[in-house]
């Protein structure tokens, strides 16, 4: 039995569907992210699971129990928001104890449970501090401790790390993932950050316009995007427009402007000459020597050092492509103006009829 099942969940505001036929099945102990651009409906879905928004139709089941009509406090969920929402007048101990007291836990039992939970988020020595005496990362850990203390069936996170600076955010991602694995609590995590979603999750649900585009492992989402939207949202894409080449005797692909032919076997159902949108990821473009027959020629326009990678803007005919290559690799030293040969594997060129992405 799935720990969490969403069955044809729908939320309409007037004529606008914020979430449309969302069906998901989350396994016990699984970490699932809802990922998508602003306005795609991820918060709406999470809030329906939390009981904070009433669905227009569809069902929510937690451990097989239909909770669609139950209030938040009877769903056995833990909630962590972007704003930590700690009680400012209570110290750390009391913040974490709050939900436990409501469950009737008290005395030595309460003391032990709070101490254990604070230790699990590495805040053992902080029980007597007030929230204002803590850093943002520490406050967020208290918020996590408070949500896990009552031992919920499911943890719901709504962009919990987006207020933190980049390095603290990386640290908290690892910490949260480790804690979630240790506790084995089924988790639904909302984020608009693809790297965060992929690094933390067992599976990622990509949403666009309130509709599930793909629900799969990070590897599948990255390597086998199910829709043009997923291809253009995940990774670092070059988004281009072109015409499909499907004429006999010519290698299948896409003609972009004049001078760029990208090999591609995708879009097989479309006719020769069809206007298409094309996605090629920066990291899938390779610099090659003279041997590769499908390679195309370009010229370096701009070079940027970005740490682990070097990013080039390359002019190919009238089209500019962005390509990335590892700083410690053989192609990191091209100067602006240098002629280069580039190639891409046909399966890494994602094609959709124009306007469909
Ligand atoms: P963000 O990352 O910006 O929070 P999101 O993916 O979480 O975006 P939602 O907040 O779920 O998006 O909103 C989905 C859509 O529903 C948006 O188009 C939004 O404008 C709309 N929407 C959300 N709440 C309401 C409301 N109370 N009334 C009308 N429309 C709403």
Walk me through the topology.
Blueprint (H helix, E strand, L loop, with lengths): L3 E10 L2 E11 L4 E5 L6 H9 L6 E6 L2 E2 L10 E4 L11 H11 L4 H14 L15 H13 L5 E5 L7 H18 L2 E6 L2 H7 L2 E6 L2 E6 L1 H6 L4 H6 L3 E9 L7 E4 L3 E4 L11 E7 L4 E2 L8 E10 L3 E8 L2 E8 L12 E5 L5 E5 L4
Brief summary:
This protein has helices spanning 42-50, 92-102, 107-120, 136-148, 166-183, 194-200, 218-223, 228-233, and strands at 4-13, 16-26, 31-35, 57-62, 65-66, 77-80, 154-158, 186-191, 203-208, 211-216, 237-245, 253-256, 260-263, 275-281, 286-287, 296-305, 309-316, 319-326, 339-343, 349-353. By secondary structure, it is of the alpha+beta class.
Structural key phrases:
Rossmann fold, OB fold (Dihydrolipoamide Acetyltransferase, E2P), 5-stranded antiparallel beta sheet, alpha+beta, binds adenosine-5'-triphosphate, 20 strands, 357 residues, 24% helix, 34% strand, 6-stranded mixed beta sheet
Architecture overview:
This protein is of the alpha+beta class and 357 residues long. The two termini are 35 Å apart. It has a six-stranded mixed sheet with strand order 6-7-8-3-9-10, with helices on both faces. A five-stranded antiparallel sheet has the order 13-12-11-14-20. Strands 15-19-16-17-18 form a five-stranded antiparallel sheet, with no helix packed on it. The mean pLDDT is 92. The longest helix has 18 residues, at 166-183. 24% of the residues lie in helices and 34% in strands. The chain is elongated. It is built from eight helices and 20 strands. The protein has helices at residues 42-50, 92-102, 107-120, 136-148, 166-183, 194-200, 218-223, 228-233, and strands spanning 4-13, 16-26, 31-35, 57-62, 65-66, 77-80, 154-158, 186-191, 203-208, 211-216, 237-245, 253-256, 260-263, 275-281, 286-287, 296-305, 309-316, 319-326, 339-343, 349-353. It has two domains: 4-229, Rossmann fold (3-Layer(aba) Sandwich); 237-353, OB fold (Dihydrolipoamide Acetyltransferase, E2P) (Beta Barrel), CATH 2.40.50.140. The structure holds adenosine-5'-triphosphate. Adenosine-5'-triphosphate binds at residues 13, 18, 36, 38-44, 192.
């Amino acid at each position: 039995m799935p720990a969490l099942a969403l069955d044809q969940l729908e939320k309409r505001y007037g004529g606008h569907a914020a979430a449309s036929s969302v069906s998901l099945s989350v396994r016990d102990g699984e970490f699932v992210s809802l990922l998508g651009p602003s306005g795609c409906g991820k918060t709406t879905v999470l809030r329906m699971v939390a009981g904070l928004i009433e669905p227009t139709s569809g069902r929510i089941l937690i451990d097989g129990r239909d909770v669609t009509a139950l209030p938040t406090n009877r769903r056995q969920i833990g909630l962590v928001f972007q704003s930590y929402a700690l009680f400012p007048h209570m110290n750390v101990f009391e913040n974490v104890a709050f939900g436990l007291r409501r469950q009737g836990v008290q005395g030595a039992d309460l003391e032990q449970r709070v101490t254990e939970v604070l230790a699990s988020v590495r805040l053992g020595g902080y029980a007597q501090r007030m929230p204002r005496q803590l850093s943002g990362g520490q406050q967020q850990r208290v918020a996590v401790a408070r949500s896990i203390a009552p031992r919920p069936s499911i943890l719901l996170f709504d962009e919990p790390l987006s207020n933190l600076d980049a390095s603290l955010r990386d640290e908290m991602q690892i910490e949260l993932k480790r804690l979630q694995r240790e506790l084995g609590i089924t988790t639904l995590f909302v984020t608009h950050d693809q790297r965060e979603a992929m690094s933390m999750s067992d599976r990622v649900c990509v949403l666009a316009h309130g509709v599930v585009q793909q629900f799969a492992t990070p590897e599948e989402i990255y390597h086998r995007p199910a829709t043009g939207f997923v291809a253009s949202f995940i990774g670092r894409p070059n988004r281009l427009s072109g015409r499909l080449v499907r004429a006999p005797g010519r290698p299948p692909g896409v003609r972009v402007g004049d001078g760029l032919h990208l090999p591609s076997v995708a879009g097989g159902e479309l006719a020769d000459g069809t206007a298409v949108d094309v996605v090629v990821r920066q990291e899938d473009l390779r610099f090659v020597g003279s041997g590769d027959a499908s390679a195309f020629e370009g010229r370096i326009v701009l070079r940027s050092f970005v740490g682990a990678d070097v990013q080039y803007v390359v002019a190919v005919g009238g089209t500019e492509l962005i390509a990335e290559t590892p700083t410690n690799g053989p192609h990191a030293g091209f100067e602006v103006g240098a002629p280069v040969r580039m190639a891409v594997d046909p399966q890494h060129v994602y094609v959709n009829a124009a306007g469909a992405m």
